[in-house]
Amino acid sequence: MTMRVLVVGGGLAGLLAARRHLRAGHRVVLLEATGSVGGAIAQSVLPGAGDLALNTGAEAYSNGSGAVDALVAELGLAEQIVAPREGLGSRVVSDAGAHRAPGASLLGIPSRPLAADVRAVLGTAGALRAALERFLPASLGARPGATVAQVVRRRSGRKVLERLVAPVIGGVHSSDPATLEFAAASPALSAGLAEHGSLTAAVRRIRGRSAGSAGTRVHSLSPTMAALPQTLQARLLAAGGILRTGVEVVGLTREETDGEAVWQVRTSRGEELSAEHLVLACPPDTARELLATAAPRVAAAIPQAPSAAVRLAALVLDAPALDAFPSGTGALVAPGTAGIRAKALTHASAKWEHVQRALREALPSACSPHLVRLSYGRPGEALPGREELIDLALADATRILGVHLDRSQLLDSAVIDWERAMRQPLPGHRAALDSLAALLAEQPSLELVGSWRAGTGIDAIVRADDSLTEGSPS
Ligand SMILES: Cc1cc2nc3c(=O)[nH]c(=O)nc-3n(C[C@H](O)[C@H](O)[C@H](O)COP(=O)(O)OP(=O)(O)OC[C@H]3O[C@@H](n4cnc5c(N)ncnc54)[C@H](O)[C@@H]3O)c2cc1C
Question: What is the largest CA-CA distance in the chain?
Answer without folding.
Answer: 71
